[in-house]
Amino acid sequence: MSGEVLSQNEIDALLSALSTGEMDADELKKAEQEKKVKVYDFKRALRFSKDQIRSLTRMHDNFARILTTFFSAQLRTFVQISVASTDQVPYEEFIRSIPNMTVLNVFEVPPLDGHVLMEVNPNIAYAVLDRLLGGRGESVNHVEGLTEIETKIMSNVFERAFENYREAWVNLVEIDPLMTNFEVNPQFLQMVSPNETVVVISLDTTIGETTGMINICIPHVVLEPIIPQLSVHYWMQNPDRKERKPEEVENLQNRIQKAEVSVVSELGGATITIEDFLALANGDVIELEKSIDEPLIVKVGDVPKFIAQPGKMNKKMAVQILDDFKGGDEEYE
């Protein structure tokens, strides 16, 4: 029977039909068995369990965070990368789903066999290129006309980005990513047979004001040797998995507490022309954009953390912390 909830009247009618012989119980069981038959498409074989897909998603959540940090440092702009979806599809279907012209980075991941593909949407690839060349991170999709210099810059930055992949896999297997090919036309790239099952992890990517996708394509042949290790039971039962000892955790906390960080209080800023800057002389006054009554922003390690007011303590300049820094365009009274 279906998963629908029957009303009391429908239940009474069904029991009445069975008792009067209008409905045969054997026929009802036969119909129930027939409904359990499902159509299975062998061209779209599901070779990974939901548990294994969840494990791959968690691994790439970590990779997305690492990539966010890497690109933020390289591009000096706002970067946000997160896992949008994880699917298993035939390789042919994946190739059809990506643009005709895109940025394809092929990597070996020894000791695992096969190749892993990182497909970068042209919008994202050109935003990265524009920032690296000193631009604002604007995207212009002309992948089919990449120059040798653009190709070299792109391949270098994505090769260095993918080196962080080993860190995402460190608890599963130690891999050594190595870039083997850079391509822009998916039709020229045949990593596996068209019907081979691949796992596609789509990363939702934002660089500045440009958005797009980065897709990680992992063929089944790459994951086959470590499929049992993708199970949650493996992590729960494996006695060899590394765990930090209590004394190691305490030692790490002590070291972090003793780490030195810079604390900077900004009095304000100003914008002047190059001409005015070159004409500055002793005794000139620069008017700051912040009023004397406004609170100061205190940065810890270049990160805004507190708001404060200026003053003196023991005949030395000092600041008094007023509140935590909330960020955004919030105004402080």
UniProtKB/TrEMBL annotation:
Gene3D superfamilies linked: CheC-like, SpoA-like
Q: What are the residue boundaries of the Flagellar motor switch protein FliN-like C-terminal domain, all occurrences included?
A: 255-323
- Just give the chief location class: membrane
Bilayer topology annotation: Peripheral membrane protein
Localization recorded for this chain is: Cell membrane; Bacterial flagellum basal body
The record's annotation in CDD domains points to: FliM (cd17908)
Top-rank taxon of the source lineage equals Bacteria
**Which UniProt key words apply to this protein?**
Bacterial flagellum, Cell membrane, Cell projection, Chemotaxis, Cilium, Flagellar rotation, Flagellum, Membrane
Name the InterPro entries for this protein: CheC-like_sf (IPR028976), Flag_FliM (IPR001689), FliN-like_C (IPR001543), SpoA-like_sf (IPR036429)
Function summary: One of the proteins that forms a switch complex that is proposed to be located at the base of the basal body. This complex interacts with chemotaxis proteins (such as CheY) in addition to contacting components of the motor that determine the direction of flagellar rotation.
Q: Which family does it belong to?
A: Belongs to the FliM family.
Which protein, by its recorded name, is this?
A: Flagellar motor switch protein FliM
